[in-house]
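Tutorial, part two.
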Amino acid sequence: MAYRKSRLKLRHQDLVVNADVRTAKLSPEPLGERPEVVRRDRESGSLVVRQLYDKATDEPLAQGYGFRWVNEAGEEVPDEDLQLLAVEDEEERPFSKHEPTLGADRTVTADAWIPVATIDEYLVSDIYELWAEEPVDVAQLYDLAVHIREFDEAPVIPFVLQPALYRRWGIITPFFDDDSFALIIRATDRKIASEHPMPVLTDEELVAAEERAEAEAAPTLEQESPFE
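Running the prediction step on this input gives:
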């Protein structure tokens, strides 16, 4: 994997960092399995693909500003005739999109509570705000915000705004000001995993590493000062 090598120099209070470091892009893993999805014409059973086209001329293009679903004969297939199929073990099975979890007449509950310290392990795709207007509801949300802060655990809710192939989740976290508070939803569907985890060295291992580096360092040439 390609990486960039540089030196990280930081000073803050009693912290001093002066280290050779490497930087490389990570590829976060999806939360949950994501099987391959294909679409077929419900009437004919033929494979359906996404085709880009020019809306002005109706001509197919390699890069267009519109798209449509067409079957193997090049015929456009309306959305209501599309069948979604998940490919697993080389077999296709029908499935439906996830329905929205937020909206009128919908109730949201937590799938889990996670330690606040682990939130940075999840790649945030969008940020939303959660609030109430009626005083009795605001009071309950304040209790939620305080609870998250005191127990250092945040609720994770299913977060689907429109029919979707894959589900996202929302992690609720609070912000506090002098006389106000806010609740933020961090939408995520991917988790960050290190590809280069570093060991936590003991004092003995650190001393041994420094001694080894000093022993391996090339000596400088001895040269007397001509100004004595």
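The chain has two helices and 13 strands. In part three we will examine how such features are distributed along the chain.
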